[in-house]
């Protein structure tokens, strides 16, 4: 089954404790991206990757890092999480004009 | 910059009645428009898209959307709503800027279909 998977689905952490949210897709898509969803703001893009070893900032990249060492994986890294990064995060991969979204990771930073 | 606006935070419809979820867009050039649905505790699911061609686009689950260039709108419609259609709906436009080929989303409209 074609899908985008994310782990963990839920995470509660404390300020400053580094964390990684993994994302994997099995569709051989070159383009992958991360979004955060906040009430009243819709989805905003954090980072994207056009291909392996090619990443770039989206609209809200501050406080985040990504890497793309393999085509299928695109982890999101928060080196020092802060409470304003409490949000719902979605990974997505794209082919043509269709994006496929993962199930989401709900992150709470206290 | 490419953007969309969803003027309604919530739409309430009785089951069996037609529904409309509104979306207007602002783009330079030809718009690439999308509708996505998000069910509780789930990711976004693609419903339909308009790239070119017929102004009436048919999508998943009986939904359709009408592209209106003069009114810069791309409203989502369904002739007969189901309770199971209750969800969060997002309109999006493909942006080409510093975000590459990102999707720029509206704020979302919560649809509640009552029995």
Please summarize what this structure is.
The complex is a heterodimer of chains A (110) and B (115). With 110 residues, chain A is mostly beta strands. Chain A is 0% helix and 55% strand.
Which properties best describe this structure?
heterodimer, A: 110 residues, mainly beta, four-stranded antiparallel beta sheet, 11 strands, B: 115 residues
Write down the secondary-structure element order of chain B: EEEEEEEEEEEE
Please tally the β strands of chain B and state the result. 12
Proportion of residues in β-strands of chain A: over 45%
Order of helices and strands of chain A: EEEEEEEEEEE
Roughly how many Å apart are the termini of chain A?
Answer: 36 Å
How does the major sheet of chain A shape up?
A: 7 strands, mixed
Mean pLDDT of chain A: 94
Number of H/I helices of chain B = 0
Radius of gyration of chain B: 14 Å
| Separation of the first and last Cα atoms of chain B | 41 Å
Largest sheet descriptor of chain B: 6 strands, mixed
**Helical fraction of chain A:** under 10%
Low-confidence stretches of chain A: none
Radius of gyration of chain A: 13 Å
Kindly state the percentage of residues in helix of chain B.
Answer: under 10%
Q: How many separate helices of chain A? A: 0
What structural class results from the helix and strand content of chain B?
mainly beta
Tally the beta strands of chain A.
11
Write the layout of secondary structure elements.
The complex is a heterodimer of chains A (110) and B (115).
Chain A: E1 4-7, E2 10-13, E3 19-25, E4 31-38, E5 42-51, E6 54-57, E7 65-66, E8 76-78, E9 87-95, E10 98-101, E11 105-109
Parallel strand pairs in A: 2-11
Antiparallel strand pairs in A: 1-3, 3-8, 4-5, 4-9, 5-6, 7-8, 9-10, 9-11
Chain B: E1 3-5, E2 10-14, E3 19-21, E4 24-26, E5 33-38, E6 44-50, E7 56-58, E8 64-68, E9 73-78, E10 87-94, E11 103-105, E12 109-114
Parallel strand pairs in B: 2-12
Antiparallel strand pairs in B: 1-4, 3-9, 5-6, 5-10, 7-8, 8-9, 10-11, 10-12
């Amino acid at each position: 089954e074609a899908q985008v998977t994310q782990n963990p689905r839920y995470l509660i952490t404390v300020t400053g404790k580094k964390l990684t949210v993994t994302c994997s897709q099995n569709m051989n898509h070159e383009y992958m991206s991360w979004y955060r969803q906040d009430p009243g703001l819709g989805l905003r893009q954090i980072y994207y990757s056009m291909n392996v070893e090619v990443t770039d900032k989206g609209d809200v990249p501050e406080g985040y890092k990504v890497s793309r060492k393999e085509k299928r994986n695109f982890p999101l890294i928060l080196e020092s999480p802060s409470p304003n990064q409490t949000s719902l995060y979605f990974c997505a991969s794209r082919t043509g004009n269709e994006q496929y979204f993962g199930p989401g990771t709900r992150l709470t930073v206290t | 910059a490419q953007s969309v606006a969803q003027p309604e935070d919530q739409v309430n419809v009785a089951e069996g009645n037609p529904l409309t979820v509104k979306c207007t867009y602002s783009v330079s050039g030809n718009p690439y428009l999308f509708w996505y649905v998000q069910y509780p505790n789930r990711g976004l699911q693609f419903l339909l898209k308009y790239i070119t061609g017929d102004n009436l686009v048919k999508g998943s689950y009986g939904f359709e959307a009408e592209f209106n260039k003069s009114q810069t709108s791309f409203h989502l419609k369904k002739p007969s709503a189901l309770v199971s259609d209750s969800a969060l709906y997002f309109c999006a436009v493909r942006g080409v800027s510093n975000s590459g080929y990102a999707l720029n989303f509206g704020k979302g409209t919560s649809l509640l279909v009552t029995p």
